[in-house]
Amino acid sequence: MTTLIKGGEVVNPHSGTVEEEDLLIENGKVSSILPKGVQGSTSAVSTTIDASGKVIVPGLVDMHVHLREPGFEYKETIATGATAAAAGGYSAIACMPNTAPPNDCRAVMEFIIEQGRKAGAAAVYPISTISKGQKGESLVDFCELAAAGAVGVSDDGSPVINSELMRRALEYAHYCGLTVISHCEDLNLSKGGVMHEGEISTRIGLPGISGASEDIFVYREISLARLTGCPVHIAHVSTGVSVELIRRAKEEGLPVTAETTPHYFTLDHESLVGYDTRYKVNPPLRTPKDVSEIKGGLADGVIDVIATDHAPHHSLEKDVEFDKAAFGMIGLQTALPLTLELVRDGIMTLPDAISKLSSKGAAILGIPGGEIREGENADLAIIDMGCEYRFEEKDILSKATNSPFLGRMLKGRCDLTMVGGKIVYQRDS
Ligand code: DOR
């Protein structure tokens, strides 16, 4: 079957260009890219997709998603998460291992891969734990788990406190071709906190989580990257100090990469004055100064990746007293339009934004994607850049609705997502 996508403007994050091109797709791959005005043979075309007035981007790649299966299927399943991802323009997502049981062995890994394959939506890549049972005591067998399909390792929200164990994790994971992803949090310092420690937490009487609890571990991971020469990826950067530490590490040439998420460049701790638990997330929403420094890190390339940290929770875990509510917010269907706000504000170019949403994450994990190129898999999304809409509960394909962006006007919407030439999401017009 041959598909022609015609009339769209194709974003190339590698060359930094946006050009009107037609795409011919055969056997799941991009077989030719025809520049504007060049007429290819259309005799064999069985389906034509009109992308006039739209932008075609490489399928987005989210390196930080929580899919909750196995163990917490009441919050999200692999199928519902992968479907929500496809609706957000994602062709691939990597899922964190904080399931029950945690993804620390071949059996869980194979289960996740199989469920992802069956879902037939965005491709699902598993991230394994660093330590057995996420307990921070002994390492998993990285090479065995890499062979079983792991694309990275992380203990996620239960970070490895023992620096010697983390050093070995960096060394062994690198040897097995896996990148360590670190959720930077000194749990002793953050213990009991429910929001950013500062003026607002004092005013509204909630226990705080200081920026230092993140910065200390970012500094440790940078020190370990320097000591070992092995790569480390810093998850969901939320503080300006972290951005500056990573900036200096990069200037020094250390193998450190970093991600942030749309909520850290869109929202700040003032959102919490109404005690709305949809804003409760870990790390917490920080100060307006942090938000501006994160934007600076996105603008100058210190922050490589925009991930979502999509964290679905059931209403029974969110519609409760603030201190009892679960941390986390969903994000797969809002990341693209929120990132496009920064493009319109001149903070990033469109190709740069798409690179942070796709190719950079793919490269860090060593998975396919992030480029529309002849001979490569046809993983792409068609975006209606001008579409303005209010984000509502009916739009959400995730099982959970814990989004702080419900009710917000968004601009830019995914019309169609293709994985390996197959349409996995198409918006009703
Ligand atoms: O807010 C969060 N929720 N932060 C994390 O690091 C974990 C996540 C979850 O699993 O719910």
Q: For the CA atoms, what is the radius of gyration?
A: 21 Å
Total domains: 2
- How many runs of DSSP E, i.e. beta strands? 19
The CATH architecture term of the largest domain is Alpha-Beta Barrel
In terms of structural class, how would the helical and strand content be classed?
A: alpha/beta
CATH superfamily label of the largest domain: Metal-dependent hydrolases
What general form does the structure show? globular
Helix content: 25-40%
Bound molecules: (4S)-2,6-dioxohexahydropyrimidine-4-carboxylic acid
Which band does the percent of strand residues land in? 15-25%
Q: For the residues shown, what is the average pLDDT?
A: 97
As for the CATH topology of the largest domain, it is TIM Barrel
CATH class of the largest domain: Alpha Beta
Contiguous uncertain segments of 5+ residues: none
**Largest β sheet strand count, sense and barrel closure:** 9 strands, mixed
Oligomer: single chain
End-to-end Cα distance, whole Å, is 24 Å
Count of helical segments?
14
Structure characterization notes:
- The protein has 429 residues and is of the alpha/beta class.
- It folds into two domains: 2-56 and 375-385 and 411-426, Urease, subunit C, domain 1; 59-365, Metal-dependent hydrolases (TIM Barrel).
- The chain is 30% helix and 23% strand.
- Strands 1, 2, 3, 4, 5, 6, 17, 18 and 19 form a nine-stranded mixed beta sheet that branches. The protein has a five-stranded parallel beta sheet with strand order 10-11-14-15-16, with helices on both faces. A three-stranded parallel beta sheet has the order 7-8-9, sandwiched between helices.
- α1 (78-87) packs across α2 (106-119), α7 (212-228) runs parallel beside α8 and α8 packs parallel to α10 (288-299).
- The protein starts with a strand and ends with a strand.
- 55% of the residues are buried.
- The protein binds (4S)-2,6-dioxohexahydropyrimidine-4-carboxylic acid (DOR).
- Residues 66, 98, 156-157, 183, 281-282, 311, 327-328 line the site of (4S)-2,6-dioxohexahydropyrimidine-4-carboxylic acid.
